[in-house]
Amino acid sequence: MKLEHKHVLINDVNIHYVAAGPTPSASHSGSTFIFLHGFPEYWATWQTQLAYFSKENYVIAPDLPGYNLSDKPQDVSFYQISNLIEFIAKFIKTVSPTEKVHLVAHDWGGAIAWPLAAFHPQLIEKLIIINAAHPSTFTREMITNPIQRDKSAYIHDLISKDAETLLSQNNYQYLSEKMMVSDNENVFTENIKEKYRQVWQQPDAVKGMLQYYRAMPQLASKTSDNKNQNMKSEGPVKNTSQMKIPNIRINVPTLILWGENDQAFVKENLNGIEEYIADCSIKRFPGASHWLTHEKSPEINEAITDFINI
After folding, report:
1. Least CB-packed of 18, 37, 66, 153 within 10 Å?
2. Residue 48, exposed/middle/buried by CB under 10 A (0-12, 13-18, 19+)?
3. What angle do CA 153, 156, 158 make, to 5 degrees?
């Protein structure tokens, strides 16, 4: 696989992305894939998928704004979901001006991809979501499920005034030892963690990553059962009685790939999801975690291929 490193200016924000494979043309029937990473990752989380799908398709993986080699807007309002939807929609239209894309997204990439598919379905051929809760079911579980609130308690650390220090201290120990954790010791080796530390060391990268959480629309307040009570939370915190369930309906064919041992999301996020998605397939991975792209890459590639070829 020959990766090209490219840059594109979207609304005066410079976005770095990698691309590989044959571009769509009259003589080539391949598709265009766009991969959106999550927190606290960067484009290379998709390296296995890029190598696999670039054999016959044009593949694109950006560093999301705020991450790695992309620009890191300082104003927290830039990271509001409504703005990110329009920003990534414009990115898709710029890098794939004539072709609908297969959009593959994980974690925060999925948090953007869900409403993007709802409001810009004309850009997307098929949607593949990997361990990113649908906004409607996630809010429902945040309101009604104390286990989901407990799983989301770490976000209070990430929106605190001391969050940059917390994440950066002791050579990014919080990120490398608390966030990026897998039962499979071969997943996050010291070599891989060192590559991530180099990404986190980019100027303003830690702040950029945190802005997504600071601009999120709503977060349940802590309960007495939640840990990490020592840091003062700021930003989008609401009592559950004040939280509103958004009505995000998806009308493009959608595949959800879900590691059931997810540290951030309860499995109940999948309950009743068909109410919001007209054409929905779900493939569960009982032994896998939130880091499904690292733990089950061959299986992910196979599942996506089967879904695309339906």
Report:
1. 153
2. middle
3. 115
Whether the Cβ atoms of residue 258 and residue 238 lie closer than 8 Å to each other? no
Task: Reduce the DSSP state of residue 284 to 3 states and report it.
Answer: strand
Among 125, 178, 121, smallest CA distance to 155 is for: 178
**Structural contact between residues 101 and 117, judged by C-beta atoms closer than 8 angstroms:** no
Task: Tell me the pLDDT tens digit for each residue of 66-81.
Answer: 999 999 999 999 999 9
Cα angle: 20, vertex 291, 16; to 5 degrees = 35
Confirm if 255 and 186 have CB atoms less than 8 A apart: no
Residue type, 135: P
pLDDT in tens, 209-243: 999 999 999 999 875 444 443 444 456 898 999 89
What is the per-residue pLDDT across 235-276, written as a single tens digit (0 to 9) for each?
Answer: 689 899 989 999 999 999 999 999 999 999 999 999 999 999
152 CB-near residues (< 8 Å, 6+ apart): 142, 219, 220, 264
**What's the CA gap between 104 and 29, in Å, rounded?**
19
pTM across the whole model: 0.95
Q: DSSP strand E in 153-246: where?
A: 219-220, 237-238
Query: Can you give the pLDDT at residue 221?
Result: 87
Running DSSP on this structure, what letter comes out for residue 41? -
